[in-house]
Design goal:
- The structure holds two protein chains of two kinds.
- Chain A is α/β, with parallel strands linked by helices.
- Chain A has one domain: Alkaline Phosphatase, subunit A, CATH 3.40.720.
- Chain A is built from twelve helices and 16 strands.
- In chain A, the strands form five sheets. Chain A has an eight-stranded mixed beta sheet with strand order 6-5-7-1-8-11-4-12.
- In chain A, α7 packs antiparallel against α8.
- By secondary structure, chain B is of the alpha+beta class.
- In chain B, α6 packs across α7.
- Chain B is globular.
- The two termini of chain B are 35 Å apart.
- The chains are: A alpha/beta, B alpha+beta.
- Chains A and B meet through α5, α7 and α8 of A and β2, α12, α13, α22 and β21 of B.
Chain lengths: 466, 1003
């Protein structure tokens, strides 16, 4: 870690420079004999994370609770409003949806996820995840950065920092927010925090004509397009090259010269990567692109697959914006609010999973489905559910995952964890482990602390690894 | 480094005697040291301590700097508090102790030590120990101070300068000589002036300024240049940003509800002015922590209190998790204050004592207690003491008028004002035109009938709540005031004018709307002032237009007579195009207090003349002067001086507002009355639901010659706490504060600080490269410069070290011995920050607007977001708008939705303190610099500017290079440039210059 510290402590003079180039000489750089891993062989080289904004209800989706049917309507919860609840808890409430068992693994899945139900034998479930907060903003930070306060780097930024890029011509860490808006904390969940800005998520508006910002000059500026643009780069290269002659010791100047070459590569590759019209009609249908309900999420799932195929390392696909509607924060009514949002993702997720598998991408790609916390088994205002960091569900599929397994269990109500409790620390430790990173050894010195994604916590959940 | 860390090494700090009494009560079942038998102690020392040391300490001890799973096993409190999974040992109950479950390897989730199982014998020993009640005689590391002997905590001592000449150079040279390094020569004058401008202003010099300096042969050209740069307001604009970074200041809350703080800019302007005024640093600190205590006679300094409110605010948590909110919001204030001013990382002591520095949890929570009486919110303040004084006097005069205080009102100094008011009254003539309502509705179900005098009389039901809506055409040309009479009528209880049993009414709210004849949208008319002939005590006419449903105008006990209220319009109503006036009279509280008979009239007269006088004043005015009683004279004086005071008040500048901290706010809500400081407890492991002992305000105990706990009583109020901390911080003997600031300033001159971790002078931070120089500077800054940053700039910039070339030169020694240039054998090359780039581009392209101060510029399009946070579109911003030309310091910085352009050039995430700007290179950054609309617009502007100055292509290229690089082109550059411009245009060429390393980097 010596070199890394040298690079980043320097501030103005020797600020963290193009790590991927300088780390090549470092003894903690990703190693080919580790399949690109940092500390041990990597099973996973790329990640697609699906994030359900608002707190997806576990007991209405994947965590079947027959006890709630027996106790439905009984007021057995806390008498006073616990810290972080938005209201005093009401009576216990059963799920309004029918559950059935699926696959050889026999996982229980509710009727809101008919498509994912067909894929449970490919998934491994963390059935007892917990959060340290019941508030959206801090909860979203926690699941992405491991801290409930702003300013910390997210998982995608850490992997970019640790492993660098797979290819030069696409962004390393791409974020695809819901067309309806950004999640809680705006761009905070994709921030590189105190890591260099180069590691932050590139936010792509999947529906826009020019999804990668500033990829080309606006057509209004003729002088910056086509042949003029080409000549400008040649001239720039000459200028920067001449400038560098008397300043050979400054690696930053060289890195900038090379960054323009890489940018040219990205201009060539990105338009193709983002062009969904190159996909077949049957693929469009499979991802739900011809159905208004599934179109937005489906488009972003398909885009995520294309980007990963082409070498983007980390893609995050968000379902739902922040706010009280159009997401998974179903305070008012589980039977009315959950089915539409569930339907908007169910088919695209199943399509993505099958597609990754069928194309052989599961050899080195990890698919994660998660949310910031769960919901109460107690009713809120009749038929809604309040925030609950007590227990919730995450599933993973793909490379390195023991398919068809589950780890942990919530209590009989689905209020708290009962066994096999995991936090974001354990999830993050497991993901890093799969990527060839020891979560305890991936550090960055910041204000007197060797910061880790997993703080002082984290255990790799070996039970769900193949 | 670890050698200096003299914490108790696990298991070795045993009390010399078995029966040592523990200082603290421990809340566990473990036997106290006093209860331990010598056998217990011996057993522990022989068997358990070595076992824990060998097998567990590597991952679970303070000494190893590692507490995996939050667990330490190096003290009784460590294992009894336990880690994430709870207590590790339950004394007397081996079967319930997690420690034994872990070493037994029964639970696949929990197997410790992870790499090798303990032997059966070792497990047996642990079991036996727990069975005995787990006697643990070790002194907890918590009470063994981490060694306070650390460079940054040592007292500042005068240091002898090691040689003659410039003191800075003497220190630097001494170190270079030790390493047998020769410094490179000074940079050329062109390089120096660019470096000086960028360093002090964040802007480049013009080619003309550059030429003038290059050709200035006078010996004091350099110091004169420095002085002129320091005298320019551009200096404060640039250096303010450094401070705003350090304290993570932004214009919005951040977090989930990332809403704008529309008044935060006052603090930004305050910081700019303080840098420009060269306010001594200790005073700058005092102002920001407690201007209200130290400088109450300068109310404008309230803006400084924006300091403590600079960081993020988790609005959502404030509502749903208030306890957590309090601790974490204060954590942000503590972290910021101590990192920015003392370069310490106290926040590391939130969950446990600081692992590396002598900072206890109690120190940390004492600092929280300093801020336990404030919350973040908008504060109103006077912009000058003079205005404050005037406002106070006028308010006192109005109080005297209300109280009819003759000692004040009948003073000679007011006599002429009263007289001229009387003359004006005599001259006043007002024509009231009675309106004839043709629509009149009772929402409460009363019967309304129009009377011959065009008044409306209510009868029938007396509802609890009543709203009358009257509309009428208005003849004439304009209306300046409206009068509503509440008329006496014998059909009403007590002859009215109200319908309540006692004849009273309460007019809660009234609304005036104008329906233009041609339009459909009514216009709500604003009332600037109200007056009546009589107000019931506590129920005044102004309350009828204050928006508060529970207040209103009433007239008790003066029933059985007619009263009136006059409403002066903010803007005269123009009747030229015709229309209708609608009046809504709401009677909401208390029940049945409804007007009985109402008549409306309008006037076009001067509103001051239309104003109603209290009935006794009106009667007095009507009498001849000689016939007036003393009481009547007093009534006249009261009315006259009230009038005078109100009009003077209206002329005073309004109160200003800043987003800051005060005791008026808690959980982001304004309180009805200032709060008393909340109780602060030490939190076990930082958990909000595990409060331990309560603590009072204080600071770091490691500096033992300063008072670490502040003696304040609850009666003192919260502000005394902040003042006490400020006193502690800027105390001449506080070594941290003075070292911290000189190091920060050094960093912005040399690219890195003498200590290269500007926010951490602890054991995890960097060590000073030149400790004697740092101390000499700190003492000099404190004693000689009296805290003047401008003097410090002068000192640094007149050194040879500052003026050195940034090129390595021909001699490879420096590169080999000290590639990182910690010894400063050359100057460090820097890259323009996001602001420097943007402002430089604006200046070069002739578009920079140097207007200072005021509300921030929103350089984005804003639309409604999914919840409180708006959606911001930076691409949609119009770069041709005049606001686009302002300096970057005046940008609105939205904490959670950063400007992608600024971010590409490493503008920091202000969720955290940002003491240093990062440096990154990426293809996305290159694309931004090539293709972002700002750069493309600016390329065109620069081209337009040059084309207006030169028509010859070679001249254009020469000028472009001169503006961007401040030098003449080589022949080859000129020829190449001209060829390029001829083919692709000058704008294309300017775009290349903006992307060039020669422009982006400062040698």
């Amino acid at each position: 870690m010596q070199r890394r510290e040298f690079l980043y402590q320097g501030g103005g003079g020797f600020g963290g420079l193009a790590l991927s180039s300088l780390l090549a000489a470092d003894d903690v750089s990703p190693r080919a004999d580790f399949n690109g891993g940092l500390h041990h062989p990597a099973r996973v080289r790329r990640v697609i994370q699906l994030f359900m904004t608002g707190g997806a209800s576990p007991m209405d989706t994947f965590d079947y609770k027959p006890e709630l049917e027996r106790l439905h309507g009984e007021k057995l919860g806390p008498a006073e409003k616990p810290e972080g609840f938005t209201a005093s808890p009401g009576a216990l409430m059963k799920s309004p949806f029918a559950f059935a068992r699926y696959g050889e693994s026999g996982r229980w899945v509710s009727s809101v996820f008919p498509q994912q139900a067909q894929c449970v034998d490919d998934m491994a479930f963390l059935m007892a995840m917990a959060s340290k907060t019941n508030v959206h903003g801090p909860g979203t930070y926690m699941m992405n950065t491991g801290f409930i306060l702003p300013g910390f780097p997210c998982l995608g930024a850490w992997t970019s920092y640790a492993l660098g890029r797979l290819v030069d011509n696409l962004p390393t860490f791409v974020v695809l927010p819901d067309a309806k808006g950004l999640p809680y904390n705006q761009r905070g969940p994709f921030s590189s925090g105190f890591l260099p800005a180069v590691h932050q998520g590139t936010v792509i508006n999947a529906g826009a004509n020019n999804p990668v910002p500033d990829l080309f000059a606006d057509p209004r500026f003729e002088f910056a397009r086509g042949r003029a643009d080409q000549s400008a780069r040649e001239l720039l290269h000459e200028m920067n090259h001449a400038h560098q002659q008397s300043r050979r010791d400054d690696a930053r100047l060289d890195a900038r010269i090379r960054s323009y070459e890489l940018a040219a590569g990205m201009q060539l590759s990105a338009p193709e990567a983002f062009d969904l019209s190159l996909e077949s009609g049957s693929t469009h249908t499979a991802y739900g692109l011809d159905d208004a309900v599934t179109e937005d999420f489906g488009r972003r799932c398909l885009l995520a697959r294309r980007l990963c195929e082409r070498g983007t390392r980390f893609v995050q696909v968000w379902s739902g914006p922040q706010g009280a509607t159009g997401n998974w924060d179903n305070h008012a009514s589980i039977p009315k609010e959950l089915p539409p949002i569930a339907r908007s993702v169910d088919l695209p997720i199943a399509a993505l999973l099958r597609d990754l598998k069928q194309r052989g991408l599961f050899e080195d790609t990890l698919l994660i489905w998660t949310t910031e916390f769960g919901r109460t088994p107690f009713a809120q205002g009749g038929e809604g559910r309040d925030h609950n960091g007590g227990t919730f569900v995450t599933w993973m599929a793909g490379a390195g995952i023991k398919a068809g397994t589950a780890y942990g269990a919530s209590d009989d109500w689905g209020y708290q964890t009962a066994e096999g409790k995991t936090y974001c620390y354990d999830l993050h430790a497991t993901i890093l482990h799969l990527m060839g990173i020891d979560h305890e050894r991936l550090t960055f010195r910041q204000n007197g602390i060797d910061r880790r994604l997993t703080d002082v916590h984290g255990h790799v959940v070996k039970e769900i690894l193949s | 480094m670890r050698l200096l860390l003299l914490v108790s090494v696990l298991g070795l700090v045993l009390p010399g005697h078995a029966a040592v009494k523990a200082d603290d009560e421990e809340s566990s079942n473990s036997p106290h040291q006093a209860d331990m038998t010598p056998e217990d102690v011996q057993f522990f020392a022989d068997h358990i301590a070595p076992l824990l040391q060998e097998k567990c300490a590597g991952c679970h001890s303070h000494a190893s700097q590692s507490m995996e799973g939050g667990l330490t096993l190096d003290s009784q409190s460590g294992w009894s508090n336990g880690g994430d999974r709870g207590p590790a040992v339950v004394p007397g109950r081996p079967e319930e102790s997690l420690l034994l479950q872990a070493v037994a390897y029964k639970d696949p989730d929990l197997q410790m030590p992870p790499d090798e199982r303990l032997t059966a014998q070792q497990i047996k020993l642990l079991t036996e120990w727990i069975r005995r009640g787990a006697p643990d005689p070790r002194t907890p590391p918590e009470v063994v101070a981490v060694d306070a002997d650390w460079w940054s905590l040592r007292p500042l001592q005068p240091v002898a300068v090691p040689g003659d000449g410039h003191p800075v150079d003497a220190f630097i040279q001494a170190r270079l000589q030790q390493q047998q390094l020769s410094p490179v020569p000074a940079a050329d004058r062109r390089t120096l002036i660019r470096r000086a401008f960028i360093t002090l202003h964040g802007l480049p010099p013009t080619p003309e300024q550059t030429a003038a300096f290059v050709n200035d042969g006078s010996v004091d050209a350099w110091p004169q240049l420095i002085d002129s740069l320091l005298a320019s307001p551009r200096y404060g604009e640039h250096w303010a940003r450094h401070w705003l970074d350090v304290i993570h200041f932004a214009d919005s809350h951040g977090c989930e509800h990332d809403v704008k703080r529309p008044h935060a800019w006052r603090f930004r302007d305050y910081v700019i002015s303080r840098f420009n005024d060269d306010m001594p640093y200790p005073r700058f600190v005092r102002e920001q922590l407690a201007a209200d205590v130290f400088y109450p006679q300068q109310p404008e300094l309230t803006a400084a209190l924006g300091f403590l409110a600079a960081g993020p605010l988790e609005l959502s948590r404030a509502g749903t998790a208030p306890v957590t909110f309090d601790y974490l919001d204060r954590d942000d204030m503590v972290t910021q204050t101590m990192a920015a001013i003392t370069s310490t990382t106290v926040n590391c002591a939130r969950c446990h004592r600081h692992k590396f520095d002598p900072i206890s949890q109690e120190d940390y929570y004492s600092l929280q207690a300093v801020f336990a009486g404030v919350g973040k919110g908008d504060l109103s303040f006077e912009t000058s003491a003079d205005v404050q004084q005037q406002r106070r006097e006028l308010s006192q005069l109005r109080q005297a008028a209300a109280a009819r205080n003759g000692d004040v009102l009948l003073q000679q100094k007011y006599a002429s004002r009263v007289q001229s008011w009387l003359s004006a009254q005599a001259a006043a003539e007002v024509d009231w035109l009675t309106l004839r309502p043709d629509v009149f509705v009772s929402a409460g179900g009363a019967t309304l009938t129009r009377q011959a005098d065009h008044s409306i009389l209510a009868s029938g039901v007396v509802p609890d709540e009543e709203t009358y809506t009257l509309t009428a055409p208005v003849p004439g040309e304009r209306v300046t005031a409206i009068r509503i009479e509440a008329l006496r009528d014998e059909s009403l209880p007590m002859n009215g004018p109200g319908r309540a049993g006692n004849g009273n009414f309460h007019l809660s709210e009234l609304r005036l709307q104008w329906f233009p004849a041609a339009g459909v949208t009514p216009q709500t008319l604003s009332v600037s002032r109200t007056s009546t002939d009589f107000d019931q005590d506590g129920w005044t006419s102004a309350q009828a237009v204050d928006g508060d449903r529970k207040s209103g105008w009433a007239i008790y006990p003066r029933v059985d007579q007619t009263h009136a209220i006059v409403l002066e319009l903010q803007q005269p109503l123009d009747l030229t195009d015709g229309g209708r006036l609608a009046l809504t009279l709401q009677h909401l509280y208390p029940p049945k207090h409804v007007m009985g008979r109402v008549r409306v009239a309008v006037t076009a007269a001067d509103p001051a003349a239309a104003r109603l006088l209290p009935s006794d004043v009106a009667a007095a005015v009507g009498k001849p002067q000689t016939a007036r009683t003393q009481e009547e004279k007093l009534a006249i004086a009261a009315a006259a001086l009230e009038e005078y005071a109100v009009s003077r008040q209206a002329e005073l500048p309004p109160l200003a507002t800043v987003y800051g901290v005060s005791s008026d706010w808690s959980h982001a809500k304004k309180l009805p009355q200032p709060m008393t400081p909340k109780k602060v407890h030490v939190l076990q492991r930082g958990a909000f639901d595990r409060p331990q002992q309560e603590v009072g305000p204080g600071a770091l105990s490691a500096i033992d010659w300063l008072p670490a706990r502040f003696s304040v009583t609850t009666a003192d109020g919260e502000s005394v706490r902040r003042a006490a901390l400020a006193d502690w911080l800027v105390h001449a003997d506080n070594p941290l504060t003075h070292r911290s600031i000189v190091n920060r300033v050094w960093q912005f001159h040399f690219g890195q600080g003498l200590v290269n971790t500007p926010n951490d002078f602890g054991r995890m931070g960097g060590r000073p490269s030149h400790p004697e120089l740092l101390d000499w500077l700190a003492v000099w800054f404190r004693d000689e410069a009296s805290g003047s940053l401008k003097q410090l700039h002068r000192l640094l910039m007149t050194s040879d070290a500052w003026r050195r070339n940034s090129m390595a030169g021909g001699d490879p020694t420096g590169q080999r011995v000290d590639a990182g240039n910690r010894l400063l054998w050359r100057q460090n090359r820097s890259r323009l920050t996001a602001e420097m780039f943007r402002d430089s581009v604006l200046q070069i392209s002739g578009r920079l607007d140097l207007t200072m101060g005021g509300p921030g510029v929103e350089q984005f399009r804003k639309s409604k977001g999914p919840q409180a946070t708006p959606a911001l579109d930076y691409d949609g911003w119009d770069w041709e708008s005049p606001q686009a030309r302002r300096r970057s310091i005046y940008r609105v910085v939205w904490r959670g939705i950063a400007d992608p352009f600024m971010e590409a050039l490493d503008f920091p995430d202000l969720g955290l303190l940002a003491p240093q700007r990062g440096f990154s290179v990426s293809s996305l950054q290159s694309l931004t610099l090539l293709n972002n609309d700002f750069v493309l617009h600016a390329s065109q502007w620069m081209s337009d500017r040059i084309c207006s100055e030169h028509s010859d292509v070679s001249d254009q290229v020469r000028r472009a290079i001169s503006l961007a690089w401040l030098r003449s082109p080589t022949q080859a550059e000129l020829a190449r440039g001209a060829k390029f411009v001829q083919r692709h245009g000058l704008a294309a060429y300017c775009r290349v210059l903006f992307n060039s390393n020669e422009f982006l980097f400062v040698d």
